[in-house]
């Protein structure tokens, strides 16, 4: 391919010298195989190889970068394309331009992008999060658990109002079930949580939080053991760390797609990425339920204990945690928080599973 510019080609545009921001009307002409840039104060002889031509994007202005930081700007894309044919890179630029203007290829690219993005969020991120969560050292889980507990105690959790005797009795009842799992030591804490209501939380470091409201809801200590076993299942499978990693990966994917780092920075100032890890997927819930069922059977405890207290939780949800109309209205802003922190959303299917196991 010839490296000479086409003859008798004239392109009008603006010239920036690079020494200042002033622009000058300019004409770039091809005469006798040579390029000449002419302005009111300048006449510059150039070769085609001196130019670095920006790719064509629709009909937006093109830039021809010249030696000594000079820039020639023009909207005459067709003539710039003619000029670019003399350069070895011209063929690639023309190909890119044709691809950018091919409607079928654009639609195909849009569909492929949506499909890849959906696959990444639905399958890629959870799989990667699970692999990373199991590869992280236990010390990371401990740090995350400690910081999360500090944040929760400073916001939505209050000191327990259960008597010391009641707490100690429950601790003794729980003790046979608190052997270390998933590389983490287990410990149970009690907190009052009017904003959350009857609930239990499993932090990544093996800290298990029971709200006073949940303790009061239980009719027997073994019902609380059933909930305890479920929460231990989350620790065993490292669901808390998996949720935290998954949240972080999701944020970073959004940042890379949108280029907006400020949204990620604002989010990480708070603790929602960690709190999101406390709300588990259906797959995680099934795994924790299986762990709880096996634990109850191994200790000769009736699986109905789990079904009974979960049924009572479902009834409480239907009646707004037993509040009056005014109290429900006052606490409506906490409803989403309860969903976020709930580590065991109630479903009839899950309750029925334990009932079926008890009848065998």
UniProtKB/TrEMBL annotation:
The chain crosses the membrane at residues 102-123. Residues 11-83 form the DUF7092 domain. It comes from the Bacteria. Its cofactor is Zn(2+). Signal peptide: none annotated. Coiled coil: none annotated. Binds 1 zinc ion per subunit. Residues 317-336 are annotated as: Disordered. Keywords: Hydrolase, Membrane, Metal-binding, Metalloprotease, Protease, Transmembrane, Transmembrane helix, Zinc. Residues 165-356 form the Peptidase M48 domain. The keyword Transmembrane helix applies. Belongs to the peptidase M48 family. This is M48 family metallopeptidase.
